[in-house]
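Question (not urgent): is this output format expected?
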Amino acid sequence: LPAAEREAFLDRVCSGDASLRKEVGALLASDESADTHIGDVVQGVAASLDAQLPVADIGMQIGPYTLVREIGRGGMGVVYHAVRSDGEFTHSVAIKLVRHGMGTAHILQRFRAERQILATLQHPNIAALLDGGTTADGRPYFVMEYIEGKPLLAYCREKDLPIQKRLEMFQALCAAVQHAHERRVIHRDIKPGNIMVAEGGIPKLLDFGVAKILN
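Got this back:
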């Protein structure tokens, strides 16, 4: 039932049983505020089974870009390295696309929320959003800057960075997080695996897939 009709319906069917009425109300309130739903959990497990299958999206055309290889995979999306192929100019980007079989309303809402969050953030230490849209088969996507670099810990080990340089990098990442917080965005998944170091030693915070915008 629409939310406006639920109260009268529950009053009627609970027939004066205050305890039952309270319990049903609590269940509905919990469902309204939940971040995840059992259907999406099942969908996520099912979608994970495609990990061993050939990547069907390689070679797919999205706007002026062609997907050339997979570079990352998460719970609801896959990130591809893509190149501009319309002959206008040469350009590499990263494109994040909802995975096959993950098209539930809740997943699509989360994906679009991530895209909107990135649109509000403009900081040298946060991977930049360039564009976005929906594919011909109805899957939303967004285009990001392509970072030619290494994961944070691998970069630090390879370069044998001294403590001073590591702390400078840490300060830069703190500034990126502060930039997000000033825009009421909470990342909720800050870890070394979500940080890439670009050319010149510039750290970039990635993956706002579980981020929240505070009211």
